[in-house]
Design a protein that fits this description.
Layout (H helix, E strand, L loop, with lengths): L1 H17 L3 E9 L4 E8 L5 E8 L4 E8 L4 E7 L3 E8 L5 E8 L3 H53 L1
Antiparallel strand pairs: 1-2, 2-5, 3-4, 3-6, 6-7
Length: 159
């Protein structure tokens, strides 16, 4: 029974791997200009027609009328840095989706780090200012109790 289940799982895995009709690769990316060169490869044994691409399910872009088996082409897109989902659809009803990561530039990373430092500094300052009045209230309360006790002792001695 275990062998049958393992065989079925293996066959499903092979069917899934062989069902991959496209491959999407990031060829180049300039984070300053946000220009990306994306390569789409037809890895299937069939030709596909009316190739369209969506980036993050926002706008569908028509890329080509036909993409023959084993061939590829590149498209240039303007994409912000970060992770984006690229989806390819065809007239034949084939859909392929892949997530690509577009790296920010060193300058953008430095700016993000500086922003994070400023936020942390502001939070630290807010925490310090929030703690100061509370600690002063406790000190004033303790001093008031001490003064009351002293006045009470003096008052009892005078009587």
């Amino acid at each position: 029974m275990k062998k049958i289940i393992l065989s079925i799982i293996f066959l499903l895995f092979l069917a899934n791997v062989s069902a991959q009709n496209f491959d999407i690769n990031l060829v180049s990316y300039n984070p300053e200009t946000q220009n990306a060169r994306i390569q789409i490869i037809n890895t299937a044994s069939a030709n596909f027609h009316d190739i369209k691409m969506k980036i993050d399910n926002i706008v569908e872009i028509h890329l080509a009328e036909t993409l023959n088996s084993g061939l590829s082409f590149s498209t240039f897109q303007t994409i912000s840095s970060g992770e984006h989902e690229i989806a390819i659809t065809t007239k034949e009803g084939v859909t392929f989706t892949k997530k690509l990561y577009f790296s920010p530039s060193e300058k953008q990373i430095e700016q993000q780090v500086e922003k994070q430092k400023q936020i942390i500094e502001q939070q630290t300052q807010q925490q310090l200012t929030a703690k100061t009045p509370k600690s002063n209230k406790y000190i004033y309360s303790i001093l008031l109790i001490i003064v009351i006790i002293i006045f009470y002792i003096i008052y009892r001695r005078l009587k």
